[in-house]
Structures
1.
Amino acid sequence: MTGGSEGVRCLLMRGGTSKGAYFLADDLPADPAARDELLLRVMGSPDERQIDGLGGAHPLTSKVAVVSPSADPRADVDYLFLQVAVDRAEVTDRQNCGNILAGVGPFAVERGLVPAGEERTAVRIRMVNTGDHATAVFPTPGGRVRYSGDAEISGVPGTAAPVVIEFPPGEHPLLPTGSTLDVVADTPVTCVDNGMPTVLVAATELKVTGYETPKDLEENLALAERLRAIRLAAGRLMGLGDVSAATVPKLTLLAPPRDGGAITTRTFIPVRCHTSIGVLGAASVAAGLRVEGGVGEDLARLRPGDDRVRIEHPTGFLDIESGIGADAAGRPVARRTAVVRTARKIFDGTVFPRSAETAPLPARPQGGQG
């Protein structure tokens, strides 16, 4: 399918604390450049209001999931996540999104890629961006996806049916630099990757408390320059190369908890400060807090013998089940990661992209994961 003024089949869904457009791969152009050009027109980018498309004028509401049957025997479907920039003609596949992931299982059932169970359905998902896997389990009474329920997640009003997402241990190192503590741009950090390359930094090292609002942090120009220097240096150290045009690694500022959780966080994605925290970013934070000698060791309040880590963020909290162990060489490795999210179908129909004659061509970041 080439997509165009005749319209493209699309399902708009809230996944976790994000919102995105979900497509079958067969309903989009096979050529990545043509696909990205179409998605820019669908989402209304570049425009800070995205007034002429589906986008919601924020990175958290300008996301796309492309889903297809998987040839991987360990998966039912493949999920490619694409971040569509708001104010730039850019589409990138250099990261995963664990919130949009929450809607992939229900979408796969809605589109007939996976048959629904009579009570609940498990969908095995390969995340194309990194090659990692996840299994999403959600209620399907009578063979239909149920979106209503009593699960509540911070950052989303009301309640919905739970989507339990379990992540098997990844094949990449939990500590990409091989060290529990590195100094980059004169700042102690712990670089961790438990599904999302993340740099953990004590907020006080950057002359902030870690309890500021996202708006206040975004307006701190000195902080922005410091974060940029840390991210560029850490990206190279983590083997990601030049990350100046990439959305990874994420930077998470850590502070002691205030509301009974394990840690307080402020996460940059990479310039805007997240109003909550991404699922995969939270998985990396939770594992990083358990690394002996890491920057979070003296800040976190972990309960002995309890795998649950409550991560506080600007609009509430996110609970992660996280356990780590050691490999034969004594290096820390993730053993178990699971999270409860929710998803809701908003509309299912045809989206009509704006005219190709009025849309700028997309810029494709070079290199990275994918």
2.
Amino acid sequence: MKGKLFLPIAVLGTVFFFSSCVSNKKFASLQSDYANLNQRYQTSQVDLASSQQRVKSLEEQLEQERANNASLKKALAALQGSLDKSITQGGVNISKLVDEINSSNKYIQHLVNEKNKSDSLLMVLTNNLTRSLSRDELKDVDIKVLKGVVYISLSDNMLYKSGSYEISEKAGETLSKIAKIIMDYKDYEVLVEGNTDNVPINRPNIRNNWDLSSLRASSVVQALQNTYGVDPKRLTVGGRGEYNPVADNNTDEGRTRNRRTEIIITPKLDQFMELIDKAPETKQEPVPAAQPQQQQPQPEQQQPQQQQQQ
């Protein structure tokens, strides 16, 4: 009987012993898991606090930017109000300004068209003159167009004898061809300018190079008038002496080039003034105190030169 009771008790003890061992291992494992979870929780709490701090900082920055934006809007509204007030006070009429600009643009286009027309006529004049002269004549005649003006430069060797202002027979045929072109273009004025080198003149009836250059130009003008029939109202005489050189007076070649008479063909000044008179009128608006008035450009002064109107 005792032997039968001992066996079950032994079995129960063994079962209890193994059950106790399994529970302790599981408990230790659970404790380890808890510790890991607790560490992760603490780390998450720190991260959360940091994130909340960043969110708070961003919210503060956002609030500051909103305040700045509101301030800028207020300043913009003030500037717009100031601009509207300035426009109203200045009495500026946008539609009127547009009309004036359009009128000015039409006037400018008219001037451009007139200039192009004049340039075209001058080129035709130059081409006709060049074709009318022979090769030998073109050796002593230089023709060019500069800034809407035709310059016909005649060498003194061809026009006069040395130190004289009387026109030679050799120059007659050339002057007749030039006179014909001048008469074909009646809307242009003619200025004849005499030029010398810097060698002083030594003649009893001629005081200096001023006299010589003026007398030579006068001889050409009188030939154009008396011999070839050019209207004297279109002619002007000018003497520039030695003070308008085109080459170096220190060489024979340079002095030869400087001894010349130029026939200068230009549009009539009264036609130009008529174009100026046609400029659109603009009413001057009062200028606000904060805006300084612009000074009008002064006309350039021309260099004085000895001229006699024929």
